[in-house]
């Protein structure tokens, strides 16, 4: 019985040593993987670009509510006179 306990104790000691050697290697791999993920770049919007995006959002929001024929008229207005008059036309057409 004593010999069996000694064998088990030696086996457990070997497992503990193996895990102790394996621990730092696993930590290094985890650090390498964590560093491999590139951080996302911070989006920097200038006030002018933010204003453009707000206008685009208004334009798209109004266009979605219009039937195709009216959308074509608003698109033509945008090409001819710009986005602000096109938004005004889309608002007017959408309110009917």
Short description:
With 96 residues, this protein is mainly alpha-helical. Helices cover 81% and strands 0% of the residues.
Describe, in plain words, how this protein is organized in 3D.
With about 100 residues, the protein is mostly helical. It has two domains: about 1-35; about 45-95, no CATH class. The chain has four helices and no strands. The mean pLDDT is about 90.
Q: How many separate structural domains? A: 2
Helical content class: over 70%
Given the structure, what is the number of helices? 4
- Main β-sheet description: none
Uncertain runs with pLDDT below 50, 5 residues or more? none
Total count of strands:
0
Average residue-wise pLDDT:
89
Series of H and E elements: HHHH
Amino-to-carboxy terminus distance: 95 Å
Strand composition percent? under 5%
Question: Structural class of the secondary structure composition?
Answer: mainly alpha
Shape: rod-shaped
> Which radius of gyration do the C-alpha atoms yield?
34 Å
Characteristic terms for this protein:
96 residues, 4 helices, rod-shaped, 81% helix, 2 domains, mainly alpha
Summarize the topology.
Blueprint (H helix, E strand, L loop, with lengths): L1 H35 L10 H17 L4 H14 L1 H12 L2
Helix pairs in contact: 2-4, 3-4
């Amino acid at each position: 019985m004593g010999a069996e306990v000694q064998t088990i104790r030696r086996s457990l000691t070997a497992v503990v040593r193996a895990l102790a050697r394996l621990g730092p290697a696993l930590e290094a791999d985890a650090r390498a993987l964590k560093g491999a993920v590139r951080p996302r770049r911070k989006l920097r919007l200038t006030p002018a670009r933010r204003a453009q995006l707000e206008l685009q959002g208004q334009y798209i929001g109004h266009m979605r509510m219009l039937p195709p024929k009216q959308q074509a008229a608003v698109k033509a207005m945008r090409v001819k006179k710009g986005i602000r008059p096109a938004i005004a036309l889309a608002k007017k057409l959408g309110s009917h």
